[in-house]
DNA sequence: CTGACTGCAAACGTTTTGCACGGTA
DNA sequence: TACCGTGCAAAACGTTTGCAGTCAG
């Protein structure tokens, strides 16, 4: 567990217990949406307000401490900002994972073809994760 | 202008005037959000209801006739479903453009590294479009 | 001690729903 | 003619705001 306090200070945010636990929860889960975050927080702070969760998500997202991850047909999830990466989304179990790959080639190609000056490349791969592939195989074997 | 009527029939949807114009508008604009679509429709159908727009967007999105385009910090925009492509988004003027590039290489790399069976690769490039680059240069030249 | 943060309640904006009428096939 | 689609109004949902009290620095 990293030194969130110092990081928050850098963003002029106070290290309240609610906020500390929010960050901890986001790091543990990797990616989480507002509802699930709120539910987790309720276990520790029964009187926490949804408004507080929103206010903190917003303040931490605005200054770049957190990032939004938007995927079609899915509620927005949040993650700690980290070095550039892509996302893997399992359309079967909804798992969302980071993957670190080199985007340089495809980015260069797009820049060349379009004339855009590209500052960021967002990639989400949708498919079936290894675990779900296994499960599907077991099922199709059973039903033979 | 393509034969929307036949396409709609394939999806068991009736070709109402409202729906036909929605599709036409989406094709013209390329990508559009609910609000702007509603405003355009009002010009032709002054009594059209927002509920109708939502209902049609939903029915046409569910069966794949339309696709959602979600970009961080932006309202969801809709486009006609078409062959796989990526998106270019200008963070200066908010233009959203299609770009047809080969995603095979980066997709293969991700599949190999992760073990996922990848069915779709969503890519959005964020940057500055050629027009805005020009404008910026003119400004910086003027103020020299 | 002071300003930022919290919880609560109300406000606000967006999306969905139910219903009676009208239009497409 | 039979339903699906429309418009309207209300409901439901998600998010933001204002305020008074509390806590971190």
Strand order of the largest sheet of chain A: 1-3-2
Strand content of chain A: 15-25%
Gap between N and C termini of chain A:
48 Å
CATH homologous superfamily caption of the largest domain in chain A: Winged helix-like DNA-binding domain superfamily/Winged helix DNA-binding domain
Number of domains of chain A: 2
Which percent bin holds the helix content of chain A?
Answer: 40-55%
How would you state the average pLDDT of chain A, rounded? Answer: 93
Low-confidence parts of chain A, pLDDT < 50 over ≥5 residues?
none
CATH class label of the largest domain in chain A:
Mainly Alpha
Helix/sheet category of chain A: alpha+beta
Annotated CATH architecture of the largest domain in chain A: Orthogonal Bundle
Shape of chain A: flat
Return the CATH topology of the largest domain in chain A.
Arc Repressor Mutant, subunit A
**Oligomerization:** homodimer
Can you put this structure into words, describing what you see?
2 copies of one chain form a homodimer. With 144 residues, chain A is an alpha+beta fold. Chain A contains 6 helices and 6 strands. In chain A, a hairpin with a 7-residue loop joins strand 2 and strand 3. The relative contact order of chain A is 0.11. Chain A starts with a helix and ends with a helix. The first copy, chain A, has helices spanning 4-10, 17-29, 34-44, 50-62, 104-114, 130-142; strands at residues 32-33, 66-69, 77-80, 86-90, 96-99, 117-128. The first copy, chain A, has 2 domains: 1-82, Arc Repressor Mutant, subunit A (Orthogonal Bundle); 83-144, Dna Ligase, domain 1 (2-Layer Sandwich). In chain A, the strands form 2 sheets. Chain A has a 3-stranded antiparallel β-sheet with strand order 1-3-2. In chain A, strands 5-4-6 form a 3-stranded mixed β-sheet. In chain A, 47% of the residues lie in helices and 22% in strands. The mean pLDDT of chain A is 93. The A-B interface holds A 67-68, 70-73, 86, 88, 90-91, 97, 99, 101-103, 105-107, 109-111, 113-130, 133 and B 67-73, 86, 88, 90-91, 97, 99, 101-103, 105-107, 109-111, 113-130, 133. Strand 6 (117-128) of chain A pairs antiparallel with strand 6 of chain B, so a sheet runs across the interface. The structure holds a DNA duplex (25 and 25 nucleotides).
């Amino acid at each position: 567990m990293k030194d969130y306090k110092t990081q928050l200070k850098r963003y002029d945010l106070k290290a309240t217990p609610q906020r500390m636990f929010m960050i901890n929860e986001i790091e543990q889960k990797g990616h989480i949406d507002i509802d699930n975050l709120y539910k987790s927080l309720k276990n520790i702070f029964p009187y926490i307000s949804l408004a507080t969760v929103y206010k903190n998500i917003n303040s931490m997202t605005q200054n770049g401490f957190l990032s939004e991850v938007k995927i079609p047909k899915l509620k927005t999830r949040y993650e700690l900002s980290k070095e550039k990466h892509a996302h893997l989304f399992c359309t079967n179990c909804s798992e969302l994972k980071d993957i670190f790959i080199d985007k340089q080639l495809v980015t260069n190609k797009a820049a060349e073809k379009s004339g855009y000056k590209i500052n960021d490349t967002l990639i989400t791969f949708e498919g079936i994760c290894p675990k779900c592939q296994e499960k599907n195989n077991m099922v199709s074997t059973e039903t033979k």
